[in-house]
Specification:
By secondary structure, the chain is an all-beta fold. It is built from no helices and 29 strands. A hairpin with a 2-residue loop joins strand 10 and strand 11. The chain is globular.
């Protein structure tokens, strides 16, 4: 098994940054439409002047239903969708062509309405698609994993929309417990997927960060990203160029204590980047006009990092109202500014949350 081992304290922590007393002024909250039920936003997508946010609502019977919000000239509004359950990721090709994927299926916006588009589903298994990227209307790719019906095994899955239907793209043998969470690239012939898989299957085996590259014909598995003594999981990947790719996620020792991870591809190899030493996990990395943003959450609320081409630094995050708690799961760059989405837990309800960085 190929492995990339990162050792030393510098590999896991660097550069402690102080928090200002308040960052609310840099993060005006988006005015979202009221909902009859509790809700959460998991992801956002933007393109062609269009902005979307997706997640779920939770009804009185604790059943969750798909949620799609669109920001137009009059602000945010809820848009009816097929109820495909949890929506995990989305990508906007243009204002009249948007894809969203979730647990077991997908849906597509045609400028007028959302329509469900079935994905490849193995009989008796549970398919979960966790990310999606597009290079054109007939070149859409999604990544996730498949649970067996008895939950005894799970295996990674990559699917491609070629204009007529989804088809599964064969992967190398990654074992019985591999999972993919992120997909991105510069073209259909330069594509990366990111996730995790066990370093070994023994009782003391840990998970390493999984990365594979597709060159248009075949997959090349990279050395696992490993940090001694902890599990590593990569949640997203974003390519700026064939020799400039970032993947983000988190590591943990087997408990809920998580610390952020970012690795960089320079065209030859992956290396671990130095990050602020605060606890947290990164779920998504997106490109802005003047650098990269990485979005996730920490025990005390939102967690946002910014890369200026030289180093990653923590950005003062949105501040919740008194007595409430914020969690951010993802984001997108809209009109040059970072939009983050998540959930605000209040004493009376759980509400979808979105805010835009203006600093």
């Amino acid at each position: 098994m190929k492995r990339l081992t990162i050792a030393g304290a510098a590999a896991t922590t660097a550069l402690l940054l102080a928090h200002p007393a308040s960052a609310a002024g840099d993060w005006p909250e988006e005015q979202l439409p009221p909902l009859p039920d509790a809700g959460v936003l998991h992801t956002a997508a933007a393109g062609g002047g269009s902005a979307w946010a997706f997640g779920i609502t939770l009804d009185a019977d604790y059943q969750h239903h798909s949620l799609a919000l669109h920001r137009g000239q009059q602000g945010w509004e809820q848009v009816p969708t097929p109820d495909i359950g949890r929506i995990n990721a989305a990508t906007a090709i243009g204002p009249d062509d948007v894809w969203a994927v979730g647990d077991g299926t997908s849906m597509r916006w045609n400028g007028s309405e959302w329509r469900e588009v079935p994905v490849v589903a193995r009989p008796g298994d549970n398919t979960q698609l966790h990310d999606v990227t597009a290079f054109g209307p007939a070149e859409v790719w999604s990544a996730g994993f498949v649970w067996s019906g008895d939950h005894s095994r799970n295996s990674s899955s990559v699917q491609r929309w070629g204009g007529q239907e989804w088809s599964e793209v064969a992967l190398p043998d990654l074992g019985v417990r591999s999972e993919l969470f992120g997909i991105g690239g510069t073209s259909p012939e330069d594509l990366w997927v990111a996730g995790s898989k066990p370093t070994d299957l023994g009782p003391d085996g840990r998970f390493g960060g999984l990365l594979l590259h597709w060159d248009g014909e075949r997959w090349a598995e990279q050395p696992l990203v490993e940090i001694p003594g902890v599990h590593v999981e990569l949640r997203d990947v974003h390519a700026l160029a064939p020799d400039d790719v970032w993947a983000v996620g988190y590591h943990h020792p087997g408990s809920t204590d998580r610390s952020p991870v970012a690795v960089h591809w320079d065209g030859t190899r992956w290396t671990l980047a130095q990050l602020p030493g605060e606890p947290g996990q990164l779920n998504e990395v997106v490109a802005g006009e003047d650098g990269l943003w990485a979005v996730g959450y920490a025990p005390d609320g939102p967690y946002v990092l910014r890369y200026d081409g030289t180093s990653w630094r923590q950005v003062p995050a949105p501040v919740p109202s008194e007595g409430e708690h914020l969690t951010t799961f993802g984001g997108a760059v809209v009109d040059g500014r970072l939009l983050v989405v998540g959930v605000e837990d209040a004493s009376a309800n759980t509400l979808p949350y979105a805010a835009t960085h203006i600093g």
